[in-house]
Amino acid sequence: MGEFTDACLRIDFRPDKLIVRVPTIGHEMMGSLFTLMARSGTGYPELYGRSRIIEGGCADIHYNSGFKSPDFSLYEVKDGGGVSDDQDNSTPTVVFEVAYSQDTRSVVEEAARHICLTRGEVQLVVAIDIVHKTGTKPRELESVTWSHWEEDVLSCDMVEHEDDEMDKVHPDRGDEENNEDYVLPPATAFTAVVVQPGSGKRYRIRAEQTAKWRVRRRNSST
To answer: What is the pLDDT of residues 190-217, one digit of tens each?
Structure first.
């Protein structure tokens, strides 16, 4: 399996097929950003301990059911070829998702899916939420929010009931229940029931927002 990307196309090589796609604005934005950082010497380190850090671009992340193409990804390749399991080798360590044309709820749910449905193999998702001012032409930037999503390893527990819905993330709001009378803000944590490979045992995994930063554009009149 391999991947080639340029400004116009993304091409995935797989054993039985060739996939050609046109990148979205999120793919293009993150690829260009990392290229600029590398040229300026402020990018990620190529070596991390005994591992190499390589770009995976927007190569598909495969779940137990289905797959998702992220906006950008980074892989850790360990000394000696990495782990022996092919699924581990094909899963990135860090994933970036950009909410440019989608709302905040969608991008945080995507972040949770990457964490939960890879059973924590994706260790960090960076969700970037870009908001424009309503009714401005051309669109004016209002704010950019950068948040980190990671697995809550202490909350992992076995599931005894087999009637739980598999491989689907659900908002985890603690004691705050969903109420149809008002709209709740986007969730900051999600849970999903997944299967332990090999044993077939089911357990509940939780993804949560662990950090958040927001930059707002100053009003030109102030």
So the answer is: 999 999 887 888 999 999 999 999 998 7
Rounded distance between C-alpha atoms, residue 158 and residue 160, angstroms: 6
96 in Cβ contact with 128 (< 8 Å) = yes
**Short-list 130, 143, 151, CA closest to 205:** 151
Cβ–Cβ < 8 Å for 128, 99: yes
116-166: per-residue pLDDT in tens?
999 999 999 999 998 888 888 888 889 999 999 999 999 999 988 777 789
The percent helix, strand, coil of the chain (3-state, each to 5) is 15, 40, 45
Which ranges in 65-124 belong to alpha helices (H)? 86-89, 104-117
CATH of the structural domain 2-151+212-216, one choice from 3.30.60, 3.30.160, 2.30.30, 3.90.1570: 3.90.1570
- C-alpha distances (whole Å) from 132 to each of 80, 142, 145, 216 are 46, 5, 12, 10
CB atoms within 10 A of CB 28: 19
